[in-house]
Protein backbone atom coordinates (compact mmCIF):
# COMPACT_ATOMS: atom_id res chain seq x y z
CA UNK A 1 0.00 0.00 0.00
CA UNK A 2 1.58 3.27 -1.14
CA UNK A 3 1.72 6.35 1.10
CA UNK A 4 0.54 9.00 -1.36
CA UNK A 5 -2.20 8.89 -3.99
CA UNK A 6 -1.18 11.09 -6.91
CA UNK A 7 -3.19 12.54 -9.80
CA UNK A 8 -1.71 14.00 -12.97
CA UNK A 9 -3.45 16.97 -14.63
CA UNK A 10 -2.24 17.35 -18.23
CA UNK A 11 -0.98 14.17 -19.92
CA UNK A 12 1.64 15.65 -22.27
CA UNK A 13 5.41 15.42 -22.63
CA UNK A 14 6.58 16.45 -19.15
CA UNK A 15 3.76 14.46 -17.46
CA UNK A 16 5.09 11.35 -19.18
CA UNK A 17 8.53 11.96 -17.67
CA UNK A 18 7.20 12.62 -14.13
CA UNK A 19 4.98 9.53 -14.41
CA UNK A 20 7.90 7.30 -15.41
CA UNK A 21 9.79 8.51 -12.30
CA UNK A 22 6.87 8.43 -9.84
CA UNK A 23 5.86 4.91 -10.81
CA UNK A 24 9.30 3.70 -9.67
CA UNK A 25 8.76 5.27 -6.20
CA UNK A 26 7.12 2.68 -3.90
CA UNK A 27 5.69 5.50 -1.75
CA UNK A 28 3.54 6.72 -4.66
CA UNK A 29 0.46 5.37 -6.40
CA UNK A 30 -0.78 7.27 -9.44
CA UNK A 31 -4.53 6.82 -9.23
CA UNK A 32 -5.79 9.22 -11.91
CA UNK A 33 -4.70 11.02 -15.06
CA UNK A 34 -6.77 13.96 -16.39
CA UNK A 35 -6.60 15.52 -19.84
CA UNK A 36 -9.08 17.16 -22.20
CA UNK A 37 -7.71 14.81 -24.83
CA UNK A 38 -9.13 11.38 -23.93
CA UNK A 39 -6.55 9.51 -25.97
CA UNK A 40 -3.75 11.14 -23.99
CA UNK A 41 -5.26 10.54 -20.55
CA UNK A 42 -5.99 6.89 -21.46
CA UNK A 43 -2.50 6.30 -22.78
CA UNK A 44 -0.70 7.86 -19.78
CA UNK A 45 -3.07 6.20 -17.28
CA UNK A 46 -2.14 2.92 -18.89
CA UNK A 47 1.58 3.72 -18.61
CA UNK A 48 1.09 4.71 -14.95
CA UNK A 49 -0.29 1.25 -14.16
CA UNK A 50 -3.60 1.20 -12.35
CA UNK A 51 -4.69 4.83 -12.90
CA UNK A 52 -8.12 5.99 -14.04
CA UNK A 53 -8.27 8.30 -17.08
CA UNK A 54 -10.54 11.31 -16.45
CA UNK A 55 -11.04 14.79 -17.92
CA UNK A 56 -10.92 17.30 -15.07
CA UNK A 57 -9.24 18.25 -11.80
CA UNK A 58 -12.59 17.87 -10.01
CA UNK A 59 -12.71 14.22 -11.11
CA UNK A 60 -9.21 13.72 -9.71
CA UNK A 61 -10.43 15.14 -6.38
CA UNK A 62 -13.39 12.71 -6.48
CA UNK A 63 -10.91 9.83 -6.87
CA UNK A 64 -9.31 10.94 -3.58
CA UNK A 65 -5.93 12.22 -4.78
CA UNK A 66 -3.63 13.56 -2.05
CA UNK A 67 -1.21 15.27 -4.45
CA UNK A 68 -1.72 16.67 -7.95
CA UNK A 69 0.92 17.27 -10.60
CA UNK A 70 -0.20 20.27 -12.69
CA UNK A 71 1.44 19.71 -16.07
CA UNK A 72 -0.80 21.89 -18.25
CA UNK A 73 0.41 24.61 -20.65
CA UNK A 74 1.80 27.66 -18.79
CA UNK A 75 -1.18 30.01 -18.43
CA UNK A 76 -3.41 27.19 -17.17
CA UNK A 77 -1.38 26.53 -14.01
CA UNK A 78 -2.81 29.18 -11.71
CA UNK A 79 -6.50 28.20 -11.47
CA UNK A 80 -5.75 24.52 -10.92
CA UNK A 81 -3.00 25.18 -8.37
CA UNK A 82 -5.30 27.52 -6.42
CA UNK A 83 -8.08 24.89 -6.41
CA UNK A 84 -5.65 22.28 -5.05
CA UNK A 85 -4.38 24.58 -2.30
CA UNK A 86 -7.91 25.67 -1.36
CA UNK A 87 -8.81 21.97 -1.00
CA UNK A 88 -5.65 21.32 1.11
CA UNK A 89 -4.30 19.04 -1.61
CA UNK A 90 -0.53 18.94 -2.17
CA UNK A 91 0.41 20.37 -5.54
CA UNK A 92 3.47 20.10 -7.76
CA UNK A 93 3.23 22.83 -10.40
CA UNK A 94 5.32 22.77 -13.51
CA UNK A 95 7.02 26.09 -14.28
CA UNK A 96 6.17 28.89 -14.55
CA UNK A 97 4.33 29.44 -11.26
CA UNK A 98 2.26 32.14 -13.01
CA UNK A 99 2.68 34.55 -15.88
CA UNK A 100 1.89 37.65 -13.82
CA UNK A 101 3.02 38.73 -10.37
CA UNK A 102 -0.63 39.32 -9.38
CA UNK A 103 -1.37 35.63 -9.94
CA UNK A 104 1.94 34.56 -8.36
CA UNK A 105 1.00 36.55 -5.24
CA UNK A 106 -2.35 34.71 -5.10
CA UNK A 107 -0.55 31.35 -5.10
CA UNK A 108 1.97 32.52 -2.51
CA UNK A 109 -0.90 33.61 -0.24
CA UNK A 110 -2.90 30.40 -0.80
CA UNK A 111 0.19 28.23 -0.16
CA UNK A 112 0.82 29.99 3.15
CA UNK A 113 -2.71 29.13 4.33
CA UNK A 114 -3.09 25.64 2.87
CA UNK A 115 -2.26 22.30 4.46
CA UNK A 116 -1.23 21.23 0.95
CA UNK A 117 2.47 21.60 0.16
CA UNK A 118 3.34 23.57 -2.97
CA UNK A 119 6.39 22.78 -5.10
CA UNK A 120 7.50 24.53 -8.28
CA UNK A 121 9.12 22.40 -11.00
CA UNK A 122 12.51 24.08 -11.24
CA UNK A 123 14.31 20.82 -11.95
CA UNK A 124 17.56 22.48 -13.02
CA UNK A 125 18.38 23.26 -9.37
CA UNK A 126 18.79 19.49 -8.91
CA UNK A 127 20.80 18.91 -12.10
CA UNK A 128 24.22 17.45 -11.30
CA UNK A 129 26.16 20.25 -12.97
CA UNK A 130 24.34 23.01 -11.09
CA UNK A 131 24.53 21.15 -7.78
CA UNK A 132 28.30 21.24 -8.26
CA UNK A 133 28.23 25.02 -8.90
CA UNK A 134 26.07 25.50 -5.78
CA UNK A 135 28.31 23.27 -3.63
CA UNK A 136 31.55 24.97 -4.67
CA UNK A 137 30.10 28.41 -3.89
CA UNK A 138 28.50 27.22 -0.62
CA UNK A 139 31.80 25.66 0.54
CA UNK A 140 33.31 29.16 0.67
CA UNK A 141 36.39 28.17 -1.32
CA UNK A 142 35.13 29.91 -4.48
CA UNK A 143 33.76 33.45 -4.39
CA UNK A 144 31.96 34.33 -7.63
CA UNK A 145 32.22 37.84 -9.09
CA UNK A 146 30.85 37.49 -12.61
CA UNK A 147 28.76 34.98 -14.57
CA UNK A 148 28.22 34.52 -18.28
CA UNK A 149 25.15 32.42 -19.02
CA UNK A 150 23.65 31.17 -22.27
CA UNK A 151 20.34 29.45 -22.85
CA UNK A 152 19.19 28.95 -26.42
CA UNK A 153 16.00 27.29 -27.53
CA UNK A 154 16.15 25.48 -30.86
CA UNK A 155 12.61 26.23 -32.01
CA UNK A 156 9.16 27.12 -30.77
CA UNK A 157 7.45 24.41 -32.81
CA UNK A 158 6.89 21.56 -30.38
CA UNK A 159 4.52 21.61 -28.52
CA UNK A 160 2.88 24.09 -30.91
CA UNK A 161 1.53 26.31 -28.09
CA UNK A 162 5.11 27.33 -27.19
CA UNK A 163 5.01 29.85 -30.07
CA UNK A 164 1.91 31.52 -28.65
CA UNK A 165 2.69 34.11 -25.96
CA UNK A 166 -1.01 34.07 -24.95
CA UNK A 167 -0.37 30.51 -23.73
CA UNK A 168 3.28 30.71 -22.64
CA UNK A 169 3.13 34.16 -21.04
CA UNK A 170 6.12 35.03 -23.25
CA UNK A 171 9.31 33.23 -24.27
CA UNK A 172 11.09 34.04 -21.01
CA UNK A 173 8.50 31.85 -19.24
CA UNK A 174 9.63 28.92 -21.35
CA UNK A 175 13.13 27.50 -20.64
CA UNK A 176 14.87 30.84 -19.84
CA UNK A 177 12.93 31.07 -16.56
CA UNK A 178 15.00 28.14 -15.28
CA UNK A 179 18.17 30.22 -15.67
CA UNK A 180 16.60 33.21 -13.92
CA UNK A 181 15.57 30.95 -11.04
CA UNK A 182 19.06 29.39 -10.98
CA UNK A 183 20.67 32.82 -10.98
CA UNK A 184 18.70 33.77 -7.86
CA UNK A 185 19.52 30.40 -6.28
CA UNK A 186 23.26 30.64 -6.96
CA UNK A 187 23.97 34.38 -6.69
CA UNK A 188 21.19 35.77 -4.46
CA UNK A 189 18.49 38.34 -5.10
CA UNK A 190 18.87 40.79 -7.95
CA UNK A 191 19.47 44.46 -7.30
CA UNK A 192 19.17 45.91 -10.80
CA UNK A 193 17.88 44.58 -14.10
CA UNK A 194 18.81 45.80 -17.58
CA UNK A 195 17.66 44.05 -20.73
CA UNK A 196 17.95 44.66 -24.45
CA UNK A 197 15.26 42.66 -26.24
CA UNK A 198 14.41 42.28 -29.92
CA UNK A 199 11.73 40.60 -32.03
CA UNK A 200 13.63 39.00 -34.89
CA UNK A 201 11.98 35.78 -36.10
CA UNK A 202 8.76 35.50 -34.11
CA UNK A 203 5.66 37.22 -35.50
CA UNK A 204 4.19 37.82 -32.07
CA UNK A 205 6.82 38.49 -29.41
CA UNK A 206 10.40 39.34 -28.46
CA UNK A 207 12.66 36.35 -29.03
CA UNK A 208 16.16 37.77 -28.50
CA UNK A 209 17.42 38.93 -25.10
CA UNK A 210 20.64 40.16 -23.49
CA UNK A 211 19.93 40.48 -19.76
CA UNK A 212 22.36 42.05 -17.31
CA UNK A 213 21.66 41.57 -13.62
CA UNK A 214 23.47 42.95 -10.61
CA UNK A 215 22.89 41.24 -7.28
CA UNK A 216 22.84 42.35 -3.65
CA UNK A 217 25.87 40.06 -3.26
CA UNK A 218 27.86 42.32 -5.63
CA UNK A 219 27.92 39.67 -8.36
CA UNK A 220 27.14 40.67 -11.97
CA UNK A 221 25.68 38.28 -14.54
CA UNK A 222 24.94 38.40 -18.22
CA UNK A 223 22.29 36.03 -19.62
CA UNK A 224 21.94 35.72 -23.37
CA UNK A 225 18.87 33.85 -24.53
CA UNK A 226 17.43 33.36 -28.01
CA UNK A 227 14.35 31.42 -29.08
CA UNK A 228 15.17 30.13 -32.57
CA UNK A 229 18.82 29.00 -32.58
CA UNK A 230 18.26 25.49 -33.96
CA UNK A 231 19.52 22.62 -31.86
CA UNK A 232 23.22 23.27 -32.22
CA UNK A 233 25.14 22.61 -29.06
CA UNK A 234 25.81 23.68 -26.41
CA UNK A 235 22.39 25.27 -26.04
CA UNK A 236 22.93 25.86 -22.34
CA UNK A 237 26.11 26.87 -20.53
CA UNK A 238 27.25 28.84 -17.52
CA UNK A 239 30.68 30.27 -16.76
CA UNK A 240 31.28 31.69 -13.29
CA UNK A 241 34.48 33.60 -12.53
CA UNK A 242 36.25 33.96 -9.16
CA UNK A 243 39.84 34.85 -8.22
CA UNK A 244 42.06 32.95 -10.67
CA UNK A 245 39.29 30.40 -10.71
CA UNK A 246 36.32 29.43 -12.88
CA UNK A 247 33.51 26.96 -12.90
CA UNK A 248 31.89 26.15 -16.22
CA UNK A 249 28.96 23.98 -17.25
CA UNK A 250 28.27 22.47 -20.66
CA UNK A 251 24.65 21.38 -21.07
CA UNK A 252 23.81 18.96 -18.23
CA UNK A 253 26.73 16.78 -19.25
CA UNK A 254 29.90 18.37 -17.98
CA UNK A 255 31.07 20.68 -15.22
CA UNK A 256 34.66 21.87 -14.78
CA UNK A 257 35.97 23.57 -11.67
CA UNK A 258 39.35 25.22 -12.11
CA UNK A 259 40.29 26.21 -8.53
CA UNK A 260 43.43 28.29 -9.15
CA UNK A 261 46.51 29.00 -11.21
CA UNK A 262 48.66 25.94 -11.96
CA UNK A 263 46.17 23.65 -10.22
CA UNK A 264 44.49 20.69 -11.83
CA UNK A 265 40.91 21.28 -12.89
CA UNK A 266 38.20 19.01 -11.52
CA UNK A 267 35.97 17.70 -14.29
CA UNK A 268 32.79 15.70 -13.88
CA UNK A 269 31.17 14.15 -16.96
CA UNK A 270 27.57 12.97 -16.90
CA UNK A 271 27.05 12.22 -20.59
CA UNK A 272 26.34 8.56 -19.86
CA UNK A 273 23.70 9.33 -17.23
CA UNK A 274 20.00 9.34 -18.19
CA UNK A 275 18.18 12.64 -18.70
CA UNK A 276 15.76 11.86 -15.86
CA UNK A 277 18.70 11.89 -13.41
CA UNK A 278 21.14 14.41 -14.88
CA UNK A 279 18.49 17.07 -15.59
CA UNK A 280 17.40 16.79 -11.94
CA UNK A 281 13.92 15.29 -12.34
CA UNK A 282 14.47 12.15 -10.23
CA UNK A 283 15.78 14.07 -7.24
CA UNK A 284 13.15 16.79 -7.67
CA UNK A 285 10.38 14.20 -7.42
CA UNK A 286 11.97 12.22 -4.59
CA UNK A 287 12.44 15.35 -2.47
CA UNK A 288 8.90 16.53 -3.15
CA UNK A 289 7.48 13.21 -1.92
CA UNK A 290 9.84 13.46 1.10
CA UNK A 291 8.50 16.97 1.81
CA UNK A 292 4.87 15.79 1.69
CA UNK A 293 5.57 12.84 3.98
CA UNK A 294 7.62 14.92 6.43
CA UNK A 295 5.37 18.00 6.27
CA UNK A 296 8.36 20.16 5.33
CA UNK A 297 8.91 22.81 2.66
CA UNK A 298 10.57 21.65 -0.57
CA UNK A 299 13.62 23.38 -2.08
CA UNK A 300 11.60 25.55 -4.48
CA UNK A 301 8.89 27.28 -2.48
CA UNK A 302 5.97 29.55 -3.40
CA UNK A 303 8.12 32.50 -2.26
CA UNK A 304 10.77 31.46 -4.82
CA UNK A 305 8.17 31.21 -7.55
CA UNK A 306 6.83 34.65 -6.66
CA UNK A 307 10.27 36.31 -6.71
CA UNK A 308 11.21 34.66 -10.00
CA UNK A 309 7.91 35.82 -11.54
CA UNK A 310 8.71 39.37 -10.40
CA UNK A 311 12.16 39.05 -11.95
CA UNK A 312 10.73 37.90 -15.31
CA UNK A 313 8.37 40.89 -15.25
CA UNK A 314 11.25 43.26 -14.49
CA UNK A 315 13.25 41.86 -17.43
CA UNK A 316 10.30 42.41 -19.81
CA UNK A 317 9.78 45.89 -18.37
CA UNK A 318 13.42 46.80 -18.99
CA UNK A 319 13.31 45.33 -22.51
CA UNK A 320 10.25 47.47 -23.26
CA UNK A 321 11.37 50.74 -21.67
CA UNK A 322 15.14 50.25 -22.18
CA UNK A 323 15.53 51.52 -18.61
CA UNK A 324 17.56 50.01 -15.79
CA UNK A 325 15.07 48.64 -13.24
CA UNK A 326 15.86 49.04 -9.54
CA UNK A 327 14.57 45.58 -8.64
CA UNK A 328 14.73 46.00 -4.86
CA UNK A 329 12.68 49.16 -5.10
CA UNK A 330 10.22 47.46 -7.47
CA UNK A 331 9.76 44.63 -4.97
CA UNK A 332 8.90 47.04 -2.18
CA UNK A 333 5.94 48.41 -4.18
N1 LIG B 1 10.58 21.62 -16.02
C1 LIG B 1 10.81 21.23 -17.26
O1 LIG B 1 11.89 20.81 -17.62
C2 LIG B 1 9.68 21.27 -18.27
C3 LIG B 1 9.83 20.64 -19.51
C4 LIG B 1 8.77 20.67 -20.41
C5 LIG B 1 7.60 21.33 -20.06
N2 LIG B 1 7.50 21.97 -18.87
C6 LIG B 1 6.26 22.68 -18.48
O2 LIG B 1 5.24 21.69 -18.32
C7 LIG B 1 4.00 22.17 -18.80
C8 LIG B 1 3.47 21.19 -19.85
O3 LIG B 1 4.37 21.15 -20.94
P1 LIG B 1 4.37 19.93 -21.98
O4 LIG B 1 5.56 20.12 -22.83
O5 LIG B 1 4.18 18.65 -21.26
O6 LIG B 1 3.05 20.31 -22.82
P2 LIG B 1 2.13 19.34 -23.66
O7 LIG B 1 1.42 20.19 -24.63
O8 LIG B 1 2.93 18.17 -24.16
O9 LIG B 1 1.09 18.78 -22.57
C9 LIG B 1 0.06 19.56 -22.03
C10 LIG B 1 -1.18 18.66 -21.87
O10 LIG B 1 -2.21 19.43 -21.24
C11 LIG B 1 -3.45 19.06 -21.86
N3 LIG B 1 -4.42 20.13 -21.62
C12 LIG B 1 -4.45 21.36 -22.18
N4 LIG B 1 -5.48 22.09 -21.67
C13 LIG B 1 -6.09 21.29 -20.76
C14 LIG B 1 -7.20 21.47 -19.89
N5 LIG B 1 -7.86 22.62 -19.83
N6 LIG B 1 -7.56 20.43 -19.07
C15 LIG B 1 -6.88 19.26 -19.11
N7 LIG B 1 -5.83 19.03 -19.92
C16 LIG B 1 -5.43 20.03 -20.74
C17 LIG B 1 -3.11 18.86 -23.32
O11 LIG B 1 -4.10 18.08 -23.99
C18 LIG B 1 -1.75 18.16 -23.21
O12 LIG B 1 -1.89 16.75 -23.17
C19 LIG B 1 4.26 23.57 -19.33
O13 LIG B 1 3.91 24.52 -18.37
C20 LIG B 1 5.76 23.61 -19.58
O14 LIG B 1 6.30 24.91 -19.42
C21 LIG B 1 8.51 21.93 -17.96
UniProtKB/TrEMBL annotation:
It comes from Ectobacillus funiculus. Residues 4-119 form the Gfo/Idh/MocA-like oxidoreductase N-terminal domain. This is Gfo/Idh/MocA family protein. Gene3D superfamilies: Dihydrodipicolinate Reductase, domain 2, NAD(P)-binding Rossmann-like Domain. It holds the Pfam family GFO_IDH_MocA. Residues 155-325 form the Gfo/Idh/MocA-like oxidoreductase C-terminal domain. InterPro entries: Gfo/Idh/MocA-like_OxRdtase_C (IPR004104), Gfo/Idh/MocA-like_OxRdtase_N (IPR000683), Gfo/Idh/MocA_Oxidoreductase (IPR052515), NAD(P)-bd_dom_sf (IPR036291). Belongs to the Gfo/Idh/MocA family.
